[in-house]
Amino acid sequence: MTQGHPPRSNSPRKGSEFAGLSVAIITPFTDGEVDYARLREQIEFQVDAGTTCIVPAGTTGESPTLSHDEHERVITEVIQCVAGRAKVMAGTGSNSTAEALRLTRRAAKEGADATLQVAPYYNKPSQEGFYQHFKAIAEDAGIPVCVYNIPGRTGKEIDVETIQRLSGLAGITMVKEATGKLDQCSAILGTTDLTVLSGDDSLTLPMMSVGAEGVISVVGNLAPGPMIEMVNAAAAGDFATARQLHHRMFALCSNMLGIASNPIPLKAAMQMVGRDSGDLRLPMTPLNEDEAQRLRETLFAFGLQESASV
């Protein structure tokens, strides 16, 4: 078994420049087409809020439904709109290593600051296959790589031992940890020098309590301010304040995202609070009326008052 090197206590972790709130930005659709004007509005909202990093073309951005041309243009539009005011971590992963390499090369050429690389999905590679896939990308990309471990979506988990091996590669600097297991987060932090970012909004504070440095957030599309406050409080060691904010955010995170698959409830919520992010693309379908009412109640309880009249 190959082990990573424990981080030195007086050294920053690789990828620590991405600490804070990253937002997995939605892709707005109008009449079946990507609505780039609305996308730019969403980006300005995040930049104004002080979000550290924008993450386009991820799961929240409905990347499985984007054509190759749309995928590339969404990333380019985000980079150009952000214009250096925040970081951009482009979602350029694929279950084909060649396709991931192609998307990543283009994003790097366009000026992306990093790449989010989801574990190859559906074909369920071996742990050696995972390692060789990410190694090929890390050695070719020229920008930092964030390994995205989300077995609930991909069908197979990247083992801690594989992440430990990957940590020895200079290009691998971060992990988006969405296994839902705090033990996995602790093991990665205890045996590597990688920056860990939560992939579950409701687990951000627990993960930061053991050394994670932020979150790649869904709920941040809707309420970046409280998420930034919570992450900043935890980073400063003010866990009393961070706990208060965690408990305030928890119901929104768990109730909203528990209604239906992301980004179905997120897009509905944004419409309810007057920040319409457009349509969904099949196979994603809207909430039914019972689900929509539960969402309205969740938003109202959180204090997003515009939802009361929708």
TrEMBL record:
This protein's GO CC annotations: cytosol
Oligomer and partners: Homotetramer; dimer of dimers.
Gene3D superfamilies: Aldolase class I (3.20.20.70)
Classification of source organism: Bacteria, Pseudomonadati, Planctomycetota, Planctomycetia, Pirellulales
Active site per database record: 148 (proton donor/acceptor), 176 (schiff-base intermediate with substrate)
Annotated positions for site Part of a proton relay during catalysis: 59, 122
Role description: Catalyzes the condensation of (S)-aspartate-beta-semialdehyde [(S)-ASA] and pyruvate to 4-hydroxy-tetrahydrodipicolinate (HTPA).
Pfam entry (one): DHDPS
Catalysis: reaction(s): L-aspartate 4-semialdehyde + pyruvate = (2S,4S)-4-hydroxy-2,3,4,5-tetrahydrodipicolinate + H2O + H(+)
Major localization listed first in the record, in broad terms: cytoplasm
Location in the cell: Cytoplasm
Pathway: Amino-acid biosynthesis; L-lysine biosynthesis via DAP pathway; (S)-tetrahydrodipicolinate from L-aspartate: step 3/4
UniProt: pyruvate binding residues: 60, 216
Enzyme Commission (EC) number: 4.3.3.7
Name recorded for this polypeptide: 4-hydroxy-tetrahydrodipicolinate synthase
Keywords, alphabetical: Amino-acid biosynthesis, Cytoplasm, Diaminopimelate biosynthesis, Lyase, Lysine biosynthesis, Schiff base
